[in-house]
Amino acid sequence: MSFEARPLRTARLLLRPLTADDLDDVFVYQSDAEVLRYMLWPVRDRAGAAEHLDRRTRMTRLAKDADPLSLGVETLDAPGRVIGEVNVRLTSVSDRQAEVGWVLNPAYQGRGYATEAAAALVDLCVDTVGSHRVHATLDPRNLASIGVCERLGMRKEAHFVQDAFFKGEWGDTCVYATLATEWRARRDAQSTESARA
């Protein structure tokens, strides 16, 4: 299966393709050293943020191995303002594997937006793209992203020690994942619980 970028709605968010008009908002978090502390790329100046955004605006189709999709995150109560971005990469079409990731403006962290947006991505991978397994790869020092993975019900599958050299030092990598069957069972259980409340 494949997916062409289009807007996705959640209870509080709109996930939609990024455009060049989003530069001011994207620059806020792409220039923040704390936000990018655990990312592989450096802090960006405005020109670097514009290059990043230009690449992201072209990440619009999931069909073959290594295809990336990038969507801007808006809150429904502040339309037109991008507060972060979420990404999917097809790691193996034949094995039906996908990787998800996210980055958020710090002013909007701690409100559950990253978890809500990431859940929509996993839904997309499982229900539309047909992924059998969805995973997230992150720095184990990134406690906020670990929290997102855990709230999504992902399990920790691996901890690689000093497997990546970035920003002048060796770093570890953790992998969290869920299977489509686990994701659907958890989602169904949550829907049943919500209906009873």
Strand line-up in the sheet with most strands: 2-3-5-6-7-8-10-9
Strand content: 25-35%
CATH homology superfamily name: Gcn5-related N-acetyltransferase (GNAT)
Low-confidence stretches are none
Tally of domains: 1
Overall geometry comes to globular
Gyration radius, rounded: 16 Å
Which CATH class?
Answer: Alpha Beta
Explained architecture:
The chain has one domain: Aminopeptidase, CATH 3.40.630.30. The chain is 32% helix and 34% strand. The chain is built from five helices and ten strands; from the N terminus they run E-E-E-H-H-E-E-E-E-H-E-H-E-E-H. The strands form two sheets. An eight-stranded mixed β-sheet has the order 2-3-5-6-7-8-10-9, with helices on both faces. A two-stranded antiparallel ribbon has the order 1-4. It is globular. The mean pLDDT is 94.
In short:
This protein is of the alpha+beta class. Helices cover 32% and strands 34% of the residues. It is built from 5 helices and 10 strands; from the N terminus they run E-E-E-H-H-E-E-E-E-H-E-H-E-E-H.
